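Here is the promised in-class demo. Please do not try to memorize the tokens; focus on the logic of going from shape to residues.
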């Protein structure tokens, strides 16, 4: 076999990648914050990639539901993707509900260079934002699987960072996170 052209590669990057795992209830701001952090890191030429729980459901999750087993499966796929990308030197940001204790334990046990960020917002605040209309659906009884509404949301016991999106602006939170990479 003959290569038509050389595979171009960037100069070697000796640093291992990192994984920032953002967890929190629906509408707390995980996707918004993660998207912004990845964009800001790239502006500083820090290689970064986002993996979102909803993306895993959309692209890999035919038949994935909202029971404990499916939720753990989404987290397992994210853990795998995060590790693979970090191994290649990327700074990974994961945005995923990660509500179950088993899922959190799986993340802690299996992800290297891990920082867990708890994206916090009261359930009342989340329900007021509700960009995907899920709290409205739950209130109308159209879904019964919304954690925080149909069952209690348990905050994580041991997050490395707490990112309170009611107390702080998106700009302030993103700046604080991005600064922590720049110091590395
Ligand atoms: N400080 C903040 N940080 C992040 N999102 C915020 C903040 N304040 C308000 N929001 C809004 O909250 C909503 C969060 O939605 P989203 O990022 O989809 O949440 P999640 O991914 O956690 O379900 C967005 O509409 C966003 O604009
Ligand atoms: Mg999201």
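The designed amino acids, position by position:
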């Amino acid at each position: 076999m003959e290569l038509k052209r050389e595979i171009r590669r960037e100069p070697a990057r000796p640093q291992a990648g990192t994984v920032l795992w953002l967890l929190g209830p629906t509408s707390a701001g995980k996707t918004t914050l993660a998207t912004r952090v990845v964009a800001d890191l790239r502006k500083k030429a820090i290689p970064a990639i986002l993996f979102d729980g909803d993306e895993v459901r959309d692209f890999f999750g035919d038949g994935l539901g909202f029971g404990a087993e499916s939720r753990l499966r989404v987290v397992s796929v994210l853990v795998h993707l995060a590790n693979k990308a970090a191994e290649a030197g990327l700074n990974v940001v994961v945005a995923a509900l990660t509500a179950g204790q088993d899922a959190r334990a799986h993340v802690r046990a299996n992800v290297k260079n891990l920082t867990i960020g708890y994206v916090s917002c009261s359930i009342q605040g989340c329900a007021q934002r509700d960009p995907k209309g899920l709290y409205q659906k739950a209130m109308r009884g159209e879904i019964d699987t919304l954690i925080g509404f149909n069952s209690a949301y348990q905050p994580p016991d041991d997050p490395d960072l707490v990112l309170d999106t009611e107390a702080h602006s998106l700009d302030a939170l993103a700046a604080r996170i991005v600064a922590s990479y720049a110091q590395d």
